[in-house]
């Protein structure tokens, strides 16, 4: 596979996401912390309302973050193409996600002209204790 070079850095992706979603609550907003060739790291701060009964972070919260990380990764590598859309998301929940800031490590598996395939790994306790893993495909306009 050809080496992937991002078109946007972390600040550029964060600015683009703020432009695309102007109504997002900035205090509870996800933040891209690092962008590299074919990869991206994102953090969602912990806040009340993320827990499900049983005291773990809810599945819909993790699915939303996985999708957001894939979208951010795609934008980092294709630039200002806000109409890229999710075409597939497959999620595996590996263990209960303990309360805390949620980290997402996204890796581009394939970037084509029309589709981007991403692997997303999520955790709160550490990258060696994954809470969930997702495979997300984006359709590029």
Q: Brief overview, please?
A:
The chain is an alpha+beta fold. It has helices at residues 10-20, 59-78, and strands spanning 31-36, 39-44, 51-52, 56-57, 85-93, 102-111, 115-123, 132-139.
Keywords:
two-stranded antiparallel ribbon; Thiol Ester Dehydrase, Chain A; globular; single chain; alpha+beta; 6-stranded antiparallel beta sheet; 141 residues
Describe the structure.
This protein has helices spanning 10-20, 59-78; strands spanning 31-36, 39-44, 51-52, 56-57, 85-93, 102-111, 115-123, 132-139. By secondary structure, the protein is α+β, with helices and mostly antiparallel strands. A hairpin with a 3-residue loop joins strand 3 and strand 4 (56-57). Helices cover 22% and strands 37% of the residues. Helix 1 packs across helix 2 (59-78). It has a single domain (10-19, 29-139), classed as Thiol Ester Dehydrase, Chain A (Roll), CATH 3.10.129.10. Strands 1-2-6-7-8-5 form a six-stranded antiparallel beta sheet.
The CATH C-level name is Alpha Beta
Total number of beta strands: 8
Low-confidence stretches: none
The biggest sheet, with number of strands, parallel, antiparallel or mixed sense and barrel status, is: 6 strands, antiparallel
Judged by helices, strands and strand pairing, the structural class is: alpha+beta
Name of the CATH superfamily = Hotdog Thioesterase
CATH architecture title: Roll
Helix content: 10-25%
Radius of gyration: 14 Å
Predict the CATH topology: Thiol Ester Dehydrase, Chain A
Overall pLDDT score: 94
* Portion in strands: 35-45%
The total tally of domains equals 1
What's the number of helices?
2
The first-to-last residue Cα distance is: 22 Å
Strand ordering within the main sheet: 1-2-6-7-8-5
Principal-axis shape equals globular
């Amino acid at each position: 596979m050809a080496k992937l070079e991002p078109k946007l850095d972390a600040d550029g992706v964060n600015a683009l996401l703020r432009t695309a979603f102007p109504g997002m609550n900035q205090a509870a907003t996800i933040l891209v912390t690092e962008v590299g060739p074919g990869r991206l790291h994102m953090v969602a701060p912990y806040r009340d309302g993320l827990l499900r009964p049983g005291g773990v972070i809810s599945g819909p919260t993790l699915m939303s973050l996985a999708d957001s990380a894939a979208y951010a990764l795609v934008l980092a590598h294709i630039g200002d193409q806000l109409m890229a859309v999710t075409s597939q998301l497959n999620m595996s929940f590996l263990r209960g996600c303990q309360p805390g800031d949620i980290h997402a490590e996204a890796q581009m598996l394939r970037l084509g002209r029309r589709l981007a395939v991403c692997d997303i790994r999520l955790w709160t306790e550490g990258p060696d204790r994954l809470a969930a893993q997702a495979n997300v495909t984006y359709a590029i306009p």
